[in-house]
């Protein structure tokens, strides 16, 4: 109950900073524009049709993350919880070159189940303010995540990583084991040896590749590969969701920096993972073969494995109910007896809270807001 005692001050908060995050304003903040979207999002957000993406986008904010001994902080984009409780928070990462909007369909289900859920943009991707062009190599991404965790999450977390996000999660868990209670690794891309020969590219060619990476034809092809059988209109809309962060002015610089730095190589780290892990693979993943998930399951010292039937590379988008249930069950298995006491923030501007003593009560309170 130590964590619960730690959270009690939230009941008398007079500012959102005391909740463990800040609703930031000004150049890096959460000033709302048309449609209730944060003003720092690209204006193209207005053209997104997916209601789940629009709803989650309205909740994205930037929180301050101090990097090293510099006086400058990075205003870092994420979706913060509406529910706080005394169990391990669930922190959701995303795939390579993506954003927290990946979790648009699954995130509400995790909250409805009573979990304290954070959806965080990895440094260099997503919607953080990178105007000062910080380094975006693997070490910088790791340190940024640690500082965000230390400043805002503050308790050992269940770290969820899909695709390359699984490599980010493994790298982080090995280097900062005190911050990670357990891992959920979804269609994990963890056996590539970094960005390979891309590290040798001349910068002009690297920028040309980055420009190609965000192009509509490449993004459209990727969506067709990941989501087989989607109607054309939805494929286009989901493509626009997936490339929205690429429209920020620093995206190319951050992408090239990561590309030339060597990326992630966690092959030797896998057997060093001490935390319990849930490995999830999809039956019809065309990006990462299930044989790699089976290999990962066998090499992790303490892991269980689950398969999502009739699903492609992004089950948290394609089958959010199934993925959410797997995460909820795993989180519950990591918790204490029964469901945790929960605090539901139903109005972030006034910090009004509900307190529920059971999972059912906190879930009901969520549904009534």
Automatic annotation (TrEMBL):
Spans traversing the lipid bilayer: none
Superkingdom field: Eukaryota
Molecular function GO terms recorded: hydrolase activity
Domain AB hydrolase-1: 90-324
One Pfam family from the record: Abhydrolase_6
InterPro entries for the chain: AB_hydrolase_1 (IPR000073), AB_hydrolase_fold (IPR029058), Epox_hydrolase-like (IPR000639)
Full protein name: Alpha/beta-Hydrolases superfamily protein
Organism the protein comes from: Abeliophyllum distichum
């Amino acid at each position: 109950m130590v964590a619960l005692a730690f959270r009690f001050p939230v009941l008398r908060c007079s500012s959102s900073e005391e909740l463990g995050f800040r609703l930031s304003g000004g150049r890096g903040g959460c000033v709302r524009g048309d449609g209730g979207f944060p003003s720092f999002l690209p204006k193209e957000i207005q053209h997104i049709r997916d209601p789940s993406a629009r709803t989650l986008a309205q909740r994205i904010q930037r929180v301050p993350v101090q990097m090293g001994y510099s006086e400058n902080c990075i205003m870092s984009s994420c979706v913060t919880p509406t529910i706080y409780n005394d169990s391990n928070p669930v922190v959701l990462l995303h795939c390579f070159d993506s954003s927290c909007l990946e979790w648009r369909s699954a995130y509400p289900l995790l909250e409805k189940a009573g979990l304290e859920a954070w959806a965080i943009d990895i440094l260099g991707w997503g919607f953080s303010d990178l105007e000062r062009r910080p380094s975006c190599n693997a070490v910088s991404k790791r340190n940024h995540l640690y500082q965000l965790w230390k400043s805002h999450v503050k308790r050992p977390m269940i770290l969820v990583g899909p695709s390359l996000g699984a490599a980010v999660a493994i790298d982080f868990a090995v280097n900062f084991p005190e911050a990670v209670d357990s891992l959920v690794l979804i269609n994990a891309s963890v056996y590539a040896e970094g960005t390979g020969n891309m590290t040798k590219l001349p910068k002009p060619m690297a920028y040309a590749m980055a420009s190609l990476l965000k192009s509509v034809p490449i993004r459209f092809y990727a969506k067709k590969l990941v989501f087989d059988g989607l109607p054309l209109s939805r494929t286009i809309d989901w493509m626009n969701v997936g490339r929205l962060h690429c429209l920020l002015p620093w995206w190319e610089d951050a992408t090239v920096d990561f590309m030339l730095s060597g990326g992630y190589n966690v092959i030797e780290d896998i057997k060093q993972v001490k935390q319990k892990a849930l490995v999830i693979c999809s039956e019809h993943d065309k990006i990462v073969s299930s044989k790699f998930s089976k290999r990962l399951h066998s090499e992790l010292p303490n892991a269980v494995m689950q398969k999502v039937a009739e699903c492609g590379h992004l089950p948290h988008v394609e089958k959010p109910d199934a993925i959410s249930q797997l995460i909820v069950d795993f989180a519950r298995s990591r918790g204490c007896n029964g469901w945790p006491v929960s605090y539901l923030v139903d109005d972030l501007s006034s910090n009004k809270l509900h307190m529920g003593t059971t999972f059912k009560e906190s879930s009901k309170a969520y549904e009534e807001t």
